[in-house]
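COMPLEX REQUEST
Ligand: succinic acid
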Amino acid sequence: MKPTSPAGSAPFSQAGAPVGLPNLLVLATGGTIAGAAAAPEILSRYQAGSLGIGAMLEAVPQLRAHARMQAEQLAQIDSKDMDFGLWEALARRVAEAMDDPALDGVLITHGTDTMEETAFFLGLAVDCRKPVVLCGAMRPATALSADGPLNLLHAVRVAADPGAAGRGPLIVMHQQAFAAAEALKFQSLSPDAFAAPLAGPVARVEDGGVRFLRPAGPARAPGPVAALRARLAGLPPGAPWPWVELVASHAGASGGAAEALLAAGVQGLVAVGTGAGTLHKALLAPLVAATGLGLPVVRASRVPLAAVERDAAEANGKLGFAAAGCLSPQKARIVLLLALRAGLKQADFQALLDVF
Ligand code: SIN
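STATUS: Structure written out below.
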């Protein structure tokens, strides 16, 4: 299947859609949900980001019973290649939709591989007062039993539900909705690919409607998040993104990768620790040296169900690391990226991490 143009509005006829339904902005970025393989039985060798959003929406006429939609093809990528430019474009359109009285919510189609990162980024960078939903698929659109069409329908139902407002971006896959900070892609084969290991799903999509399993949080963003957004809003267009990398601790670890990154000018590091965020002594040495030079270092864990707490030394500022709490290393990196981009100081990083 020929890839569609990477950006632009996508024709989608609203003929026959009842008036009075919620109005959704649909932003398409590619992924397996738009993927095409050579034959219906092929599930793993396919081209992600092949089908245009207009065709994807037309293929599910049931969507018209739940929302009126206007679609934009922002990109056509495999989400492993997600970059800061597309994040900025998404954040801009989501923010505009929040301010547009004609729109009731936003739906983003996205590859599953970095979906949790984009959802978390949007939740930090934008005040998502209206429903913002991301959805994808584990099987290409050409597959027998493709999961994309049903995920799309469920995502529209969640995005059209006022109960989804005030929860930040939600990931809707396989009949469940997950909060951005809690969601994790935990397996790469089955349509049931996402989980929230600590908190569980926020909602289930049933034939009768969306069943929310817990109340939405407070309407106002916690202080550190509101302060971060205010500083990000003041950045000039095209402001540079800092260089932040992950370094992993494991059996037989060395400090070599961290030392090389420091020598090359990295601006922040997230240490992917073992267990509760413990670090091999060989890796610890260059990280302590890094903090001595004023470089921010966040300790996280490779364990999906972990809570990395500040240890006594850190709390006294001795090692100068921040602790990721319940955030995965890749989400802790997004906090660090945005905090550095916004010019926040090390003391403020921990307050941001503590929000989650
Ligand atoms: C991608 O992340 O774009 C490819 C994999 C997927 O969507 O499941």
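REMARKS: The pocket of succinic acid is lined by residues 30-32, 48, 78-80, 111-113, 136, 138 (CB under 6 Å). The first helix runs from residue 53 to 58.
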